[in-house]
Amino acid sequence: MNWKKLFGIKENVTEESNEKTKSDSEFSLLVDELELVGFFKYIDSDKINQVKDEVITSGYLYGDTGRDFLADEEDLSEGGVGTFFEEISPFLEKQGIELTINNEVFNEERYEIQVNGEKYTLYTQVDVENDKYVEINTRRAFSIINKLLEGAGSKERLFGLYGWNDLIAIFLTNEMYEIILKFEQDENERPKLMI
């Protein structure tokens, strides 16, 4: 009987640490490649190296970059889209978008929001009856922001990472998105364009 294996004692610790070092160095290369395409441009230049080090140490690509925002899908579907839009408005302002929420109607039959004078339906009674309203609401909310970004001539788009109560809204350019997709093999860790 192999007692080391039974109790989880590693026989070749060097091999495991080499795998981790390789993974860390690949992640570091990803971070450097993203920096070249402006990933850290919303951070004060004197803090970029510190944020890069924190990103590499934590393994969470979006930490302190100013690109990620909590977007709990349940909260969004329960009348929270306006609040979410207000939370991301500083980022939108950097893209030349002044966001004005003129009206928000939320009840059991529908959820509508008026942004910059234009009315959007987030979900209807039919969506609620089909039990698809949470996902539909999120996709439509992200779509509104992406439409505003496109209209402003910004290359940034809003992507989603994870989902439901853990949904993170992430702003990326298509170039950044493609770089991340080349690196990230785990489907759950890949951002998704919410359309």
The coarse silhouette is: globular
Strand content: 15-25%
| Radius of gyration (Å) | 20 Å
What is the first-to-last residue Cα distance?
A: 55 Å
- Could you give a short account of the major beta sheet? 4 strands, antiparallel
User: Would you tell me the structural class of the helices and strands?
Assistant: alpha+beta
Mean pLDDT: 88
Write the H/E string, N to C.
HHHEHEEEHHEEHE
Instruction: Give the uncertain stretches in residue-range form.
Output: 1-22
How are the strands ordered across the major sheet? 1-6-5-7
Helix content: 40-55%
Tally of extended strands? Answer: 7
Instruction: Please report the number of helical segments.
Output: 7
Account of the 3D structure:
The chain has 195 residues and is an alpha+beta fold. It has 7 helices and 7 strands, in the order H-H-H-E-H-E-E-E-H-H-E-E-H-E. The strands form 2 sheets. It has a 4-stranded antiparallel beta sheet. Helix 2 packs antiparallel against helix 7 and helix 4 runs parallel beside helix 6. The longest helix is centred in the N-terminal third of the chain and has 24 residues. The protein starts with a helix and ends with a strand. The relative contact order is 0.12. The N terminus is likely disordered.
